[in-house]
Known about the structure:
Elements: H1 2-31, H2 40-66, H3 68-71, H4 78-111, H5 127-156, E1 164-171, E2 174-179, E3 213-215, E4 218-221, E5 226-232, E6 237-241, E7 246-250, E8 256-260, H6 266-273, E9 280-284, E10 296-302, H7 304-313, H8 317-320, H9 330-343
Helix pairs in contact: 2-4, 4-5
Keywords: Copper, Electron transport, Membrane, Metal-binding, Respiratory chain, Translocase, Transmembrane, Transmembrane helix, Transport
Enzyme class: translocase
EC number: 7.1.1.9
Amino acid sequence: MYGFLIGVGVLLLLSIIWMVYRIQTLVSVVKGSDKKVASGSNKINAILFVLFLVGTGILMFWYSIKEFDNYQLPVASEHGVITDQLFWVTMAVTGVVFLITHILLFVFPYKYQYKENRKASFYPDNNKLEVIWTAVPGVVLAGLVLTGWMAWSDITAPAPENAHVVEIMGYQFAWDVRYPGKDNVLGDYDYRLITASNSHGVDFTDKNAIDDFPSPKVVIPKGEPVLFKIRARDVLHSVFAPHMRLKMDAVPGMPTRFWFVPTKTTEEMRAELNNPEFEYEIACTEICGRGHFSMKKVIEVVEPEAYQKWLAEQKSFIQQNPSLAENLPAEMKELADIQLSESKK
């Protein structure tokens, strides 16, 4: 380790000495004490600019084509198709501008390298040119922003009335999932009610919470709208389901939402990818602490019939832990007892 640091130090020292020498040379040129304005390194540097352009350009295109399937994942939601279209339109527009500007950036040092018989042209302004290069990007960017805003408005608009509701709660360092039961209405929650046996902080004095139930994974039906209600228990997290093109921050004290329609079941995606072990997943894309890497939750997309069957088999929080109903008011206790009696049938 020390040998490496010494080597780096020597390299930096040599670089500093070389830079001081070059600065002295340039100062002497400015003062006129050195009649040699351009050395052989001027032409070498100009050629290196072009070689760097060609080399990195080839590397960029090769890597983009080679890894295309790794960063362009199959789409598994309706709005994901629109999201991808917006992405590739934006990529085309900015990509063309990127290529043009960088080709000019690296070719100009070669084309206009110093020559004793060449004089620079004085070109102070061109109002017409300035209007064009201001107006064209403005119009293009306005178009991109407008189409993106329209897609975002659809995603964040109120979900259809028949949407299946799922609550995703992030905390250090996992996701908890809560379903609303048969009434499809989630019960209230309060962070002050969070205990070891009630990690969601569900308020069971709310009758809508009586049939709420947890799930170790997110199960959703294909072809039907799904509404994710998202919140965080401690710090900022972010719900990211790449195949669904879904990303939404989970913010403490500020619930967010995202609704979508899955288009491929887990089994269909496994067949498409020829990967029998494939699973959709939710990952966290906010650096939320030392255990950030472990925040993963499996999403299983099934046919509507299989979803209804799975839904009917689930047991509520109270059915799984009757002690949650011990201190409820009489009216709520009665509803909880009904839940418990149903679980025994």
